[in-house]
Amino acid sequence: xxxxxxRSWSASxxxxxxxxxxxxxxxxxxxTVGAMLGTLLAIWSAACSGFILDLAPDVLLVVHLVAxxxxxxxxxxxxxxxxxxxxERIGRHPNTRTGYALLICLAVVSLSGLAxxxxxxxxxxxxxxxxxxxxxxxxxxxHTIRWSWRKQRTGRGAVPRVRPALYWQAAALVFAGGLxxxxxxxxSTPDAAQARSATVALEHASLESRVPTSAAECxxxxxxxxxxxxxxxxxxxxxxxxxxxxxxxxxxxxxxxxARFCATCHNPIGLIQGExxxxxxxxxxxxxxxxxxxxAYQARALSVPLAISARxxxxxxxxxxxxxxxxxxxxxxxxxxxxxxxxxxxxxxxxQLLMRVNxxxxxxxxxxxxxxxxxxxxxxxxxxxxxxxxxxxTFDEWRASPYPDQGVxxxxxxxxxxxxxxxxxxxxGRSASHGDLHDGWEEGSxxxxxxxxxxxxxxxPAGAADAPTLHATVILTNSGTGHALPTGASDLRQxxxxxxxxxxxxQIVWQTGGLDAYGxxxxxxxxxxxxxxxxxxxxxxxxxxxxxxQILTDTSLAPLERRAIPxxxxxxxxxxxxxxxxxxxxxxARSPExxxxxxxxxxxxxxxxxxxxxxxxxxxxx
Length: 622
Known about the structure:
Layout: H1 2-8, H2 10-22, H3 26-45, H4 57-70, H5 72-84, H6 96-116, H7 123-151, H8 164-183, H9 192-196, E1 200-201, H10 215-219, H11 223-230, H12 241-254, H13 260-266, H14 268-272, H15 275-287, H16 293-302, H17 318-322, E2 324-326, E3 336-338, H18 349-357, H19 359-366, H20 374-378, E4 383-384, E5 390-392, H21 394-399, H22 410-414, E6 417-420, E7 429-432, E8 452-460, E9 469-477, E10 494-502, E11 508-512, E12 526-527, E13 530-533, E14 550-554, E15 562-570, E16 579-588, H23 592-599, E17 609-618
Antiparallel strand pairs: 1-3, 2-3, 4-5, 6-7, 8-9, 9-15, 10-11, 10-12, 10-16, 13-14, 16-17
Helix pairs in contact: 3-4, 3-5, 3-7, 3-8, 6-7, 7-8, 12-23, 15-16, 18-19
């Protein structure tokens, strides 16, 4: 009955008959088995994992793909000979179980390979793909050797005569096993792409024909991480209106070339691509046309807002941290060297496949040891004036704290471990969060960890004609930051104490640190900040740090510093308790005056963040 049904499909029957006739001869059968084993050996040799792919990735991946596709024919011939031709008695064959096991391995290899090729690089799936290919190869090799051994026996009980065919089969088995072990050995040599690439200092030079990779290219595989980065201050470093306003002022006073100092950290891609230099050249050409100083000033003014490319507008993008290494023993002022390994950011489909099937090389290129070191952050978060004065020494503040000895770096707080989806997969994994790549104040994720606040009080006895005085002491501790509080551009930041005494009706009896109707902070507030001064000891306004030659005042708190701030609160005779005494540590990223200068419009309603607060009940004086 089966034969009659099969003959009804005449075309299929004829094809199967032709293949069966072709494979019935012993020579053809051996050739088929040899081709199959050779194909599987080639596939395993180019198994896309471990150090072996680094030898010749392009060649090996081509061999892997071609051999995998070409291997379908000898596998089909092998299966036709062993299964289709003997389908009526296959259940009685002594190797039926082995055959089914190898078929399962073949199915796993094929299906996992099809999934890996266009869709994913999920590591367990790659491991399953390689392991099943190895089991398939070893099982077929062992079966073939056993088959050849039986064929070479001269009689029952006689010692078999080893023929040359067994030598290459045994050698293939040993070779495959050696390659399998070698494939899992860790790489001990530096990444080839890094070794071929020249380093470029951000303070000078350009990448010439090399174009730094855009974050949009990373987004194709690392969408979740790129989304976190886009919400960070790093992504807006070059387009921040406050940076652009200060740069505008700098160019008007110092010329376009001076903007390189700020662009080193705020607009590094534009600097590397020569965009700042091109603007400076335009200014120089206009200045030399004989139009005089007025023309030069106009040229500087027209050069702002630094018309930058879309790639440069990404600010501090992925490539700056993942391919940057500190270029100096004393980090600061953009002392970063970029290793532009363009091979690690492929754009062609085949190159993307090569990176996906062997992500270890890409991971080594994109995750150098410096990525875990605070010095990488210090390259930009350590700013010095031309005379060596520390303007924004965040890295130095951390280095002078106890945290380096404890192994706590910037990354511990600003890039904590988080659960994300691995590349092209819905399964969750562990990685560093890119959502805290800001100073921690704007989003508030680090605000509540910054400080602790205590409040003590006592009544002072009143004089004959005076009302009693409440003596309060606020105890503030920088308990949760690895740097000064505040840090960075602390001449712009506003961090202050608000202390308030409330009567039983909820009315304010006395207060310091409150805001007026315009949002301005009163002069009596206790602030924590740095005031820079020029050569004449005048306070620097509008963050004109290029004018700074000295530090007039620095009231910021060092890491783990504990400070007691006393207050004397006089009462009038009509005030009656019990009172409520509260203290709050408040923060605002910038003052309304500076925001109005930068935005060129009224800046009322700037957000104020509460870091920590406490309150106590104060009874009437006895």
